[in-house]
Structures are given as structure tokens and as C-alpha cells.
Amino acid sequence: MDSFLIEGGRPLHGEVTISGSKNAILPILAATLLTPDTCRIRGVPDLSDVRFMLQILESLGAETKFERGMVTVRAAKVRGFGDYELIRKMRGSICILGPLLARCCEARVSLPGGCVIGTRPIDLHLKGLRALKARITVEYGYINATTRRLAGTTVFLGGRAGPTVLGTANLMMAATLATGVTVIESAACEPEVTDLANFLVSMGAKIQGIGSPTLTITGVDRLNGTDHEVIPDRIEACTFICAAAATRGEVIIHGARPDHFAAVIDKLREAGVQIERKAGTLRVTRPGKLKPADVTTMPYAGFPTDVQAQFMALMCLAQGTSVITERIFESRFMHVAELMRLGAEIAIEGPNAIVKGGLPLSGAPVMASDLRASAALVIAGLAAKGKTQVHRIYHLDRGYERMEEKLRKLGAKILRVAGE
Ligand code: UD1
């Protein structure tokens, strides 16, 4: 398993371009199963999760091509059963359930396992699809779903922690080919859900209320092929901003959509980070010392859970105490113990992490536990004195396109070490 070797303490300087959004492209790729025609998607990041999803589509009968950031999918014929091993490996693959049911009237996918950031239930996905008249059983680790034809209805999809992103995606995709009208109440409003909705509309779907908590979908008999450019990855943009601020560098960010992460920008400014918009770019600097800031993760447009770990790494460097509250995933603090190995002082009390910032960080070997936790360790490693080795960076490869190359271009000393 590869690791990153980082020699910290060097400010990042230069320019970086943000890649297409991982969380937008995965459901969009699943949506290509809804039509026998050809779909072309541009701006696709080369990530292991994207490669996995393309393999899954192929195992379901689709033809795929991925060249120079453009994916072409033609799912002329599709079967409801694919390569379970592949499907099991990637949680995002749950979003093939809705399109398969809509297109083939049957689907069998493996139940996504738990992961380190929490139990990750799928009860809301199943509730939504059952409301559309799917018969679903869960047996021997598989979800078996069949329907004569999906039928529109009104479903409230909010859960204990608020709306569900992939649950909304699944149901919205299923509803595009259902009979009648489906209303999804308490739908997720994340930009990635909006991007998927725009993709579906470009295929001929009828969706109203895009970007709002109430989505109204009028089913159609057939969807057509389309051409689409995926939105930029807001989480990658926030990660690079945190890295620039942590190392006290000056970084120009190209291709980001700051309107997709206003809550993060607001908190970063409170913490003393300067972010200036200029001709479609963002210039990130940190003129003085970092100040502590309290953060609570929330559904969009609140502070995203996917930036919680990176922001915590930054707050380890602020002069004073910050309280970081995780409200979306109950055990998303795996990075805390590893940040402490670098010298941070953090206490966990229920959903709160109390970060006593300002202590000097020094390099150490650390273990990445999930995608965003890994990003936090890279940020801390870049700011720490000496050498940090981040093990198990396959997590990072799932969601960051060529992260070490982008960081090296910004002047970081970071190496990929093979097979450790
Ligand atoms: C997506 C993102 C992930 C992000 C998360 C929250 C992708 C591929 N992943 O994950 O990066 O961290 O949104 O913004 O887009 N829940 C239920 N029942 C369900 C489904 C979810 O109780 O059936 C709960 C979850 O446990 C969690 C909350 O709802 O507490 C939000 O989860 P959800 O929005 O579904 O996350 P994902 O869509 O899996």
C-alpha cells in the first residue's frame, strides 16, 4: 500500500486547478444506465472511485470509454445484476439501485458495509423506492428489488441527521421513468444533487424545484443521451484552501465555484484566512496568526462534514480553543488520534472535538483511515516540522486527483512511496 512522505514547514505558493466533483460524477455515471443512448460527460476526475464505477457499469452491460477527462457511456442493453465484488467495494455504488429498477424493473446490489465514519444505513433509500412500488428484500448481504413498474407518489425522505444525498439521488433517478408524479420532500440540496438533476433534465427528465428541499418529478417513458460537464469539486477546493492557510502560503485557485462552499469561506475568514475573488479565481493568503473558530457540520448550505477533518487540522494551528461539532456522521473523528501523534491537543466529548490550538506540530508516521481524514493528515503534515509519513493513501486516491502532483507544483515536498 502506497504512502506519502511529506517534509513539512514549507509554505505553498503558486496556482492549482480544481478537478471535477467526485460526489457529483458517481451518481451521474449511475444515471447513464437510464438511457440506451450515448452520454458524454466532461471534466471527469481520474479517481479510483470513478474507475470502479465504470467497471460496475460495464459489468451491467454498458460500454464505457474514459479519455482525457471525458467519459462516454452507452448502456444499450442493461441487466439488473452486476459484479457484486466490485459493487461491494464502493459505497457510492448504492446509487445504481434506482436507475436499475427504473430501467430493468429489477436490481440486485450488495449491501454497502459499514465504514469507519459511521454505520451508513440505507433505510431511507429503501423507504423511498418502496414508496414508488418496488418490492425490496434484504437477504444474505444483498438488496433484491423488483417492480412491475415504478409509480410516482409523495415521499418524505428526511432522516435522523437530515436529508440524504445519495438517497435523494437514487429516488430522483428512479422517479424519472416512473408513471405519474413523484414529490420528494426534505430532499438534499447539495450542489452534487443539483448537478445530477441538471444532467437528468438534459436527458429529457421533468424535474421541478431543483436545488430546493422539494423536488417534483414527472415521469417520462424514455430518456435520451446527452452531453454534460460535471461541476468542480468543492471539497477539493476547500482542502487546498486549508493547506494554503495552514502553511501560510499564497495560492491562486482556478476553476472553483465559491458559491458552493460559502459556509466554509465564512469560517475561514473568521479564522483569519484571506480569500479574494478575482476574475474567476480565488487568491488565498493568511496575513496574520490563525484565530480559533467553532464549527458545526450540517446539510447544505451549512458547513460540510466532508471538510470537518481538514478544518480541524487548520484549527490545530490557531491560537486558542475551537469546538468542532459533527452532526452528520457519528464517529467521524478517526483523524483525531492521528493529529495528536503530530502534537495536536484534541479532546472528544460526544459529537464535539475540542481543539486546543497553537502547539507546535512535528512530523510522525500516521495512518489514513478514510478519505477526508487522509486529507487532514496531509494538511497537518505540510504544516508540521520534519517528516510525516501518511500510510494507506489509497483512501486519498479514491477522491483526490493527483493530489501529490498538485501539491508538488505548489512547492510542497511530498513523495509517493510505493508499497508500504
Ligand atoms: C454523501 C457523500 C459523502 C458525504 C455525505 C454527507 C457521495 C458519494 N458521498 O454520502 O461524501 O459525507 O453525502 O454530505 O456523494 N442516513 C440514514 N439513512 C439512509 C441514508 C443516510 O439514516 O438511508 C443518514 C446517514 O447515516 C448520515 C446522514 O443520513 O447520518 C447523511 O448521509 P447521506 O447524505 O445519505 O450520505 P451519503 O449520501 O452516503
Give the arrangement of secondary structure elements:
Layout: E1 3-7, E2 13-17, H1 22-31, E3 38-42, H2 48-59, E4 63-67, E5 70-74, H3 84-89, H4 97-104, E6 106-110, H5 123-131, E7 135-139, E8 142-146, E9 154-156, H6 165-176, E10 181-185, H7 191-202, E11 206-208, E12 214-218, E13 226-229, H8 234-246, E14 250-254, H9 262-270, E15 274-278, E16 281-285, E17 295-296, H10 308-315, E18 320-325, H11 334-341, E19 345-349, E20 352-357, E21 365-367, H12 371-383, E22 387-391, H13 394-399, H14 403-409, E23 413-417
Parallel strand pairs: 2-14, 3-13, 9-10, 17-18, 21-22
Antiparallel strand pairs: 1-22, 1-23, 3-5, 4-5, 6-8, 7-8, 10-12, 11-12, 14-16, 15-16, 18-20, 19-20
The site of uridine-diphosphate-N-acetylglucosamine has 23 residues, from helix 1, helix 5 and helix 6.
Description:
- The protein is of the alpha+beta class.
- The protein has two domains: 3-17 and 232-417, UDP-n-acetylglucosamine1-carboxyvinyl-transferase, Chain (Alpha-beta prism), CATH 3.65.10; 26-229, UDP-n-acetylglucosamine1-carboxyvinyl-transferase, Chain.
- It is built from 14 helices and 23 strands.
- It has helices spanning 22-31, 48-59, 84-89, 97-104, 123-131, 165-176, 191-202, 234-246, 262-270, 308-315, 334-341, 371-383, 394-399, 403-409, and strands spanning 3-7, 13-17, 38-42, 63-67, 70-74, 106-110, 135-139, 142-146, 154-156, 181-185, 206-208, 214-218, 226-229, 250-254, 274-278, 281-285, 295-296, 320-325, 345-349, 352-357, 365-367, 387-391, 413-417.
- The strands form six sheets. Strands 21-22-1-23 form a four-stranded mixed beta sheet, covered by helices on one side. A four-stranded mixed beta sheet has the order 2-14-16-15.
- Strand 15 (274-278) and strand 16 form a beta hairpin.
- Helix 10 packs parallel to helix 12 and helix 11 (334-341) packs parallel to helix 12.
- The radius of gyration is 21 Å and the shape is globular.
- The site of uridine-diphosphate-N-acetylglucosamine (UD1) has 23 residues, from helix 1, helix 5 and helix 6.
- Uridine-diphosphate-N-acetylglucosamine binds at residues 23, 26, 92, 118, 120-125, 159-161, 164-167, 188, 192, 305-306, 328-329.
